[in-house]
Amino acid sequence: MIRIVIAEDQHMLLSALASLLQLEDDIDVVAQVPDGSQALEAIRTLRPDICLLDIEMPGLSGLDVAKAVRREGLGCRIIIVTTFSRPGYLQRATELKVDGYLLKDEPIEDLVEAIRKVHRGERVISPELAAKLFFSREENPLSERERDVLRLAADGLTTGQIASALYLTKGTVRNYLSSAIQKLEVESRHQAVKKATEKGWI
Question: Which of 1, 5, 136, 163 has the fewest Cβ atoms surrounding its Cβ within 10 A?
């Protein structure tokens, strides 16, 4: 039996996906959660074989969860399921060695087959995404700290709140923001967040 945790912030899609997967004789959905933090907690507690992760969720993103799973050596295989075909997301997923990267609009039969392949130790990627990665590879110019700061800025946090969250001084946060704005060749924090998000770099 393949034990699965599903993390998806759209409740209707989460419920539908779980119901469809439960119809398979060899798949057991052990948890359905609406955000990344709960996904990570479920993985730590339930030790599933595979976690299906939406890429954009409240709190921790699917890529944040994948990073934590790898860092903590939890042994859970990761399949990212997304509506976004942004090359930056795919690059980050590749760097994190996720086991599968699929688009949400693919048939359920393809997802089920991908789950079985990943469970066997294979790696699966949507053909459309593979082509986009090959032809559109663009390096992310942002450092890890700059990405952290921009992610929090994207959540609407002030400079002071970002400083508290990352245990930095306000001046250091301003320096990271300034550096990110310069690297992205934009004029404001808002534009930096927008461009980095569109590129899939945060």
Answer: 1
